[in-house]
Amino acid sequence: MSQTSNRGFASMDEAKQREIASKGGRESPGNFAKDRARAVEAGRKGGQMSGGNFAHDPQRASEAGRKGGQQSGSNFPDGSDRSPDRSRHSDI
């Protein structure tokens, strides 16, 4: 026969739960609001790890666009392979 116990966080009164929970939020290291140097360092690391943009590498941009187009399939409901950069008014 199992018995329920009155132990643990869930069985505490609501005010006590809030008090404990708020301590955890204040101690959390995930907020950069109070530590600008830490935020700057995190941003720097993220930028170094990023592949960057395509501003100085048009060949890489072209390859990425081609891969994206191949993965997306057709953009047209009829499944045609019309190029989106063709004029809408073209009779071609």
From TrEMBL:
It comes from the Bacteria. Residues 13-26, 33-44, 57-66, 79-92 have a biased composition (Basic and acidic residues). Coiled coil: none annotated. Residues 1-92 are annotated as: Disordered. Pfam families: KGG. InterPro entries: Stress-induced_KGG_rpt. This is Stress-induced protein.
